[in-house]
Amino acid sequence: MADVSGDVTKDPEVLEQAERTSKIEQLVVVRSREQFERAKDRLASVDVVGLQEDFEPFCSELEDRFGWDLGEPVVANDTPHEEVSNAFRARIAPDSALDVELYEFARDLVANRRRDGAARP
Asked: What is the rounded distance in angstroms from the CA atom of residue 109 to the CA atom of residue 20?
């Protein structure tokens, strides 16, 4: 486990996590099928993947896997759900198609890892 009392910028675990985070940040814009396939590969290479809508079970998995105590959930930004028109959904659907597909891949990845009993094969 990382030593958080000293300079964490020299801790190998922190540096490795930063590298993984950088890979995740590269997933933000997916514009082509080639980028999409790379994004899927990168996402599959991340040890622990969680989904916002499944946040509390994800935190429980982190606690179990790493022996962490994350405490009670804290809600910092809770906004009410806002309906959007079907016309708006239709307008953004083509631009969001690969993003939706990547989300579905992530959802399946999480479900498969949970079913197999491992955060990462």
From this structure: 17
